[in-house]
Design a protein that fits this description.
6-stranded mixed beta sheet, 7 helices, alpha/beta, binds zinc ion, 46% helix, two-stranded antiparallel sheet
């Protein structure tokens, strides 16, 4: 009997070793840093709301999470990466809304920096596209600070343009942010499954 228990616990340990243990969720901006804005629509509020929905859904599925901020609070980029790096076996998901001087720019895009995070970025991105009808701006390489300074696989999501009329009206609606959160979580789960099956690292 003892050897069966040992064998089983070895299997469980192997699967834990392959998958990540914590999802660090980073709501962009906060406090004095509003991020992009249009009238009273601030990126920092949309990002935090979406991030909290992601956290809730992940916790429901039994995932461990760590938010870099849970309120309207200013946190430096260095601090955000440092929080991410505190969790050695984690992934880092930064949530933003976009802004452009060209009012016509719209849609969602997802960035990665390390090639290791490219699969996570594409899973999260296609997860969102499966949930909402928006312009697909694609999965892109980006040199954002938090992506360059976080050691674990990290992605940065731009959920919609607050500077665009139709994107902004959607972003203000709870169902849109909920649908995006569900898509992001589905992407994260798909990525974890790939890691646990050993087809991803
Ligand atoms: Zn931003």
């Amino acid at each position: 009997m003892v050897w069966i228990v040992c064998f089983w616990s070895t299997l469980v340990n192997l699967s834990l070793a392959a998958g990540f243990r914590t999802v660090v969720i980073d709501a962009g901006h906060g406090g004095k840093d509003n991020g992009g804005s249009y009238g009273k629509v601030y990126e920092k509020h949309l990002a935090l709301d979406t991030a909290m929905r992601v956290e809730y859904l992940l916790n429901q599925k039994g995932y461990r999470t760590r938010m870099t901020r849970k309120s309207d609070q200013y946190i430096s980029l260095a601090k955000r990466s440092a929080i991410g790096n505190r969790y050695s076996n984690s992934i880092f998901v930064s949530i933003h809304y976009n802004h452009a001087s060209r009012k016509g720019a719209k849609g969602i895009e997802t960035f990665y920096y390390s090639s290791r995070a490219k699969t996570l970025a594409s899973y999260v991105h296609s997860g969102m596209l499966a949930k909402v009808r928006v312009v697909n701006r694609g999965v892109k390489y980006g040199r954002f600070y938090v992506l360059r300074h976080t050691k674990n696989p990290s992605v940065l999501i731009e959920c919609a343009f607050v500077s665009n009329h139709s994107d902004r009206s959607k972003s203000k609606k709870g169902w849109y942010r909920q649908a995006l959160a569900e898509g992001i979580v589905n992407g994260i789960i798909r990525y974890q499954n790939g890691r646990e099956r050993g087809v991803l690292r």
